[in-house]
Amino acid sequence: MADGAQTQQAWDRAGILSLFDPSTGTLDRRVLADEALYRLEMERIFARGWNFICHDSQIPEPGDYVVNYIGEDQVICARDEEGQVHVLLNTCRHRGNALCRAEQGRAKSFVCSYHGWNYALDGKLIGVPGQKAYYRDDLDRTRLGLHKARAENYLGFWFATLDPEAPRLRDYLGDVGRTGLGMICAHGEVEVVDGIQKNVIACNWKIAVDNLFDWYHVPYSHGSANTAGFLDIARILHPKNQMVMLGEYGHAIGGPGIPKELQAQIDGMSDAEREAASRAQADTGLRIRPRAAVELMGPTGVRSMGHPNIFPNLWITLGGLQMCLRLPRGPNHTELWWYTFVPKGAPAEFRRRVVRQAAHVFGPAGLLEQDDGENWSQSTRASHGAVSRRLGHHISMGLGHDEARPAGDGSGAYVESVIGEHGQRWLYRAWTEWMAAADWAELEANHSRPPLGTV
Ligand code: FES
Ligand SMILES: [Fe+2]
């Protein structure tokens, strides 16, 4: 069986909703292992939601393209001669061959390597060898263009969905998703450094996602980084100043937050004073944002120094320097794609330093990701044992002890407290709702709005 997974029953609505109990924080381990659930995720989460595809800086010129994924559907994102961006399924309409084999590049059109069908940058079928001689002109090329996803851009970040019923990207992101992307752009325009780092970890994609809200593991899992002097955990953890933001459709941000009183002092500072204050305490991981950042992140978001996840699988790291896609590859494997950002036009030496630092923290050579990957793999593996898979995961930290308050335009809420597991619970609650809904109409009618009051 593919990927060593177990096939379970066909899942109905009640069965899916029973997989996570938000009132106790109990997660059924089959969520991390079941093949049928995984197949359903491809349809109900990835094909339905908005997926990050690329940043504007990766495709600046006509003909530029990158290849990415919507779940396991491979897509080409290409800029045409008029500058329009198209996201096209990378599968020939003749016999399904992949058209584009390079990860990125510049092209005039995409020619299939099997029989030579030729597609324009906007997906139109413009050439068929033997159209007259073999097909006897009996082929309607207008119906055989590449399948097109809906593509929209926010702040230079291109997303795509395969569901015509999905809301507009801006509405999908809501306050919390927009805060997350705003975090990357808070200090000015950015560009992606060439060379996306890609590696595979033997874990379910969701355990890699839920870990990004998990500040509980940091002192223990990453103790060796502390011992080696690579990281001063006590300085970056801020365990009592944690702020979790909960957004519609499952977006969330978890990690340290700037307390309101401190933010009130920051509000009175000029941008130059903010930069100087950031430099003075660089080892805390807090970089105070410029005044204009409030436009992008809102008055609550601007206090967040945590990790955003744009549902389902786009992680933005601390400070917005890096981004990681957690691409599912079967229930037991996840491909991680690491993007590093630098200020637009940054000098080569600065880029080199940023890349070096980034590569040493996350990605295949990253000290922290090696710690994390081991734990994720073993948690995934132990979801398959005949008896161990019947035991739940206990995600109950802070449950019933904290208050959620409204954030931003009302599409988000926030919780300020000590380290807890509110972000993880929000993720799995959203996951069950996405999975239980047959279509967007059902999801809109039944999904949880960000909570207010005791959480
Ligand atoms: S599969 Fe592409 S041309 Fe035949
Ligand atoms: Fe970690």
Describe the fold and architecture.
Helices cover 29% and strands 24% of the residues. It is an alpha+beta fold. The chain folds into two domains: 51-154, Rieske Iron-sulfur Protein; 170-454, Naphthalene 1,2-dioxygenase Alpha Subunit, Chain A, domain 1 (Alpha-Beta Complex). The strands form four sheets. Strands 13, 14, 15, 16, 17, 18, 19, 20, 22, 23 and 24 form an eleven-stranded antiparallel beta sheet that branches. It is globular. Bound molecules: FE2/S2 (inorganic) cluster and fe (ii) ion.
CATH homologous superfamily title of the largest domain: Naphthalene 1,2-dioxygenase Alpha Subunit, Chain A, domain 1
Quote the average pLDDT.
95
The percent range for helix content is 25-40%
Low-confidence stretches: 1-8
**C-alpha Rg (nearest Å):** 23 Å
Task: Fill in the CATH topology of the largest domain.
Answer: Naphthalene 1,2-dioxygenase Alpha Subunit, Chain A, domain 1
* Amino-to-carboxy terminus distance: 41 Å
- CATH C-level class of the largest domain: Alpha Beta
Number of helices, counting only DSSP H or I runs of 4 residues or more: 14
The CATH architecture designation of the largest domain is Alpha-Beta Complex
| Strand fraction | 15-25%
Main sheet makeup:
11 strands, antiparallel
Sum up the structure in keywords:
455 residues; alpha+beta; Rieske Iron-sulfur Protein; Naphthalene 1,2-dioxygenase Alpha Subunit, Chain A, domain 1; 14 helices; 24 strands; globular; binds FE2/S2 (inorganic) cluster; binds fe (ii) ion
